[in-house]
Each structure stands twice: as structure tokens, then as C-alpha cells.
Amino acid sequence: MERQPIMAANWKLHKTVAEARQFVDALKAGTTALEGVDVVVAAPFTALYAMSEQLRGTSVHLAAQDVFWERRGAFTGEISAPMLVDVGCSHVIIGHSERRQCFGETDDTVQRKVQAALAAGLGPIVCIGETLEQRQAGETFRMIETQIRAGLAGCDADEASRLVLAYEPIWAIGTGVTATPAEAQDVHRQIRHLLAELWGEAAAQGIRVQYGGSVKPDNIASLMAEADIDGALVGGASLEADSFIQILMYRG
Q1: Domain ranges in the chain?
Q2: Are the CB atoms for 198 and 158 separated by under 8 Å?
Q3: Which residues are annotated binding-site positions?
Q4: Binding site for substrate: which residues?
Q5: Which overall architecture, per CATH, does domain 6-248 show?
Q6: Which residues are catalytic?
Q7: Threshold 0.85, pTM exceeds
């Protein structure tokens, strides 16, 4: 099965509304000829509404970087999935390693957020990945299997088809060190085998699995040449429109 690549920009804690608007203008101007790639931009909550207005009528998808699992209630500072839909989001990143490491997120909270996102009609981009210590100890896939089984518990095959998984080795995020295409492909292949075990071969072949971790214009083509890498979750290289556009145009 041929899966359409999906490239997502994760801005993290960057960009004011004005800066976000400038980026969108440049992205729209630079991708008029782009075909065959789904484009997602995950912006700070404060910029989402303004960006949704700019992106109306385009094929660029808007994403939030996090979501809470309750629809409403006494949860000061949280944002619900219906709120994200209301401001124009179609996707949301869930379980990024920075959320896990800095804010105490667990596989259980990931699972609750995934279910909330699906219920609201959002497409979850679910992050998984191992630390350097876990990789050196030969525990890469054990950790990833745990994250997938627990974080996606309760999903059926139809719901799983709406997911995007983002494999991000924690040791490669923001370090300038990227897993080699062969290393990334090996993990992606094992992920797809697990997905087949969980939901069947047909579902597994339809779920897109991105790679993330120091993705840049000069390494994206080699990563995308691998059979089971279906896109990228891009951090630092997505902050400048020019470099992100180069990544989107990886086919040349």
C-alpha cells in the first residue's frame, strides 16, 4: 500500500501571532506546486485561531501541540479537544518526549488524550521513542512496544487508521544527531509489525509512521527513501519557512 507522506512542523515554544502569520504567508507562497504530501503545522495555542483564518481554503492542516482529556471543567490552564476543533485544528501532537520528560506525562495520560482527540474528530500524532541509555541497553523496541500498547489501548482498527505515529529517538531531538536511515527504518519496520499484530495487516499498512529527530533539508530525502518511513515531525528546521519548504520538496 502506498501511504501519502505527512510532514509536520512542531514549533514548540516559538513564534508570536505576527511571526506565525509571516510564516504562513511564506509557506503558502512557496508550496503552490506541492503535490502528494500532507502538510501539518503545530503552533502554540495563542497563534492557532489567527493561522486558521489564513489557512482557510488551503491544503495545509493546523495542529495543536497538546490537548487535555476532559471536554470541560475546573482544569485551569488546560485546552480541550473540542476547543481545538473550534479554532480550526484537524490534528494534535500527543505524548511528545518533552511533555513526558518535562511535564510528567505517562502512557496513561497519552491514552486518555488520544481517546479525547479521536472523539472530537482530531487526528492524533502520537510520539514514541527511546532514550540514549535505553538504546545502548538494547531496549529500544521494548520501550516503544510498551508506549504503543499502553498509549493506544482502547483503539480499534478504524480508530487506528486515523492515527499518525511519530518515532522520535529522544537522543536525536534537538541534538543535531540523526538516526541513520537504516536505523530509523529498522525501528519503523518493527513498529509496523506490532501494528499488524494489534489491528491486522491491512490496518498496519495504512497507518503512517513519521520519523523525528534533527530532520533537516539535507537528510530528509535519504530518510524518506526507506520503505516504512512515511514523513517527518520537524522541530528546529521548521521554524524558518525556507528550510521547512525545502523539506516538503524533498523529491526535488
Answers
A1: 6-248
A2: no
A3: 10-12, 174, 214, 235-236
A4: 10-12, 174, 214, 235-236
A5: Alpha-Beta Barrel (3.20)
A6: 96, 168
A7: yes
